[in-house]
């Protein structure tokens, strides 16, 4: 998935939160509109259109400024099509995900002759990371925000991800953060920071670990019981066939304990077969 498309996906999932962040004020509702407009469709992979109360918010996520048609012309084209369709005020915001090459001019208007059309440009590397760290919906974008030490920010975001209580949300946030981190960090560093050890600091992870340890103890006890019983049976009734061994290994701990008592009265393999038949009936 392209980086700009991922941001579009996040905005579609959380339109109210994205609109509130971009506009800098609380938004109560936002409706996601189709991104393909009339006449000849414009390429709209990284575009999201939100219908707010009394206006349209057009978000364009960009990794690179170079495009065809050029970005300023595309923004003008979208404005005309949107206004023709909805006849509402339109707020256009280009969200740049990565700094361009040094010396590159970041345009925020289409200018030709007497025609001038302006739009807002929001640079992620200038944004305060606290805005995103405090909001799970916006959290993946935190990795692209301003930071004196980008690596420290990467660790901070990873720690924040580990505190998300919902397993599903935590997995999604982790995946999204790691994908966007690819715009800023080496893959080896990303894998290192998001190693399993980080999750150990969360309460959720500790609970899962405890459950795993309890299952491991139970498994160890089962295997121990099975080994002892097979040795005792070998002494009482002779070699136990692989088929019978498989049946014994499928017994619960309670059944194994019952078999340990019963086998003291066995004298032949038939006694074992009869007992297994009865216990599994």
Notes on the protein architecture:
- Helix content is about 50%, strand content about 15%.
- It has helices at about 5-15, 15-25, 70-85, 130-135, 150-160, 165-180, 185-195, 195-200, 205-235, 240-250, 255-260, 270-280, and strands spanning about 30-35, 45-50, 55-60, 90-95, 110, 115-120, 120-125.
- The protein is of the alpha/beta class and about 280 residues long.
- Helix 5 (about 150-160) runs antiparallel to helix 6.
- The strands form 2 sheets. A 5-stranded mixed sheet has the order 1-2-3-4-7, sandwiched between helices. Strands 5-6 form a two-stranded antiparallel ribbon.
- The protein has 12 helices and 7 strands.
Set down the secondary structure blueprint.
Elements: H1 3-13, H2 15-23, E1 31-33, E2 47-52, E3 55-62, H3 71-86, E4 90-96, E5 109-112, E6 115-118, E7 120-123, H4 129-133, H5 150-162, H6 167-181, H7 187-193, H8 196-199, H9 203-237, H10 242-249, H11 253-262, H12 269-279
Parallel strand pairs: 3-4, 4-7
Antiparallel strand pairs: 1-2, 2-3, 5-6
Helix pairs in contact: 1-2, 5-6, 9-11
**Overall SS class:** alpha/beta
How confident overall, as mean pLDDT?
84
Q: Can you summarize the main beta sheet?
A: 5 strands, mixed
Strand proportion? 5-15%
One letter per element, helices H and strands E, the order comes to HHEEEHEEEEHHHHHHHHH
How large, in whole angstroms, is the Cα Rg?
A: 31 Å
- Amino-to-carboxy terminus distance: 53 Å
Q: Counting H and I runs of at least 4 residues, what is the number of helices?
A: 12
Spatial sequence of strands, sheet with the most strands = 1-2-3-4-7
DSSP, total strands = 7
Helix content: 40-55%
Question: Rough shape?
Answer: elongated
Uncertain runs are 199-205
């Amino acid at each position: 998935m392209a980086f700009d498309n991922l941001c579009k996906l996040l905005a579609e999932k959380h339109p109210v939160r994205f609109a509130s962040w971009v506009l800098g004020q609380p938004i109560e509702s936002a409706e996601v509109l189709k991104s393909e407009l009339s006449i000849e469709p414009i390429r709209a992979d990284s575009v999201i259109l939100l219908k707010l109360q009394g206006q349209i918010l057009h978000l364009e996520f960009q990794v690179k400024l170079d495009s065809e048609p050029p970005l300023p012309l595309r923004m003008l084209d979208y404005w005309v099509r949107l206004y023709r369709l909805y006849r509402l005020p339109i707020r256009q915001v280009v969200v740049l995900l990565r700094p361009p090459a040094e010396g590159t001019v970041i345009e925020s208007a289409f200018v030709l002759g007497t025609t001038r059309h302006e739009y807002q440009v929001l640079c992620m590397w200038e944004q305060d990371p606290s805005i995103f760290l405090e909001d799970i919906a916006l959290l993946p974008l935190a990795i692209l925000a301003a930071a004196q030490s980008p690596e420290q920010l990467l660790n901070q975001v990873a720690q924040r991800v580990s505190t998300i209580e919902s397993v599903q949300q935590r997995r999604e946030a982790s995946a999204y953060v790691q994908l966007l981190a690819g715009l800023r960090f080496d893959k080896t560093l990303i894998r290192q920071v998001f190693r399993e050890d980080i999750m150990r600091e969360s309460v959720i992870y500790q609970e899962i670990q405890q459950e795993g340890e309890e299952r491991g103890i139970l498994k160890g006890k089962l295997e121990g019981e099975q080994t002892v019983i097979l040795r005792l049976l070998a002494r009482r009734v002779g070699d136990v066939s692989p088929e019978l061994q498989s049946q014994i290994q499928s017994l619960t701990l309670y059944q194994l304990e019952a078999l340990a008592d019963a086998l003291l009265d066995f004298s032949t393999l038939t006694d074992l077969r009869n007992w297994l038949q009865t216990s599994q009936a």
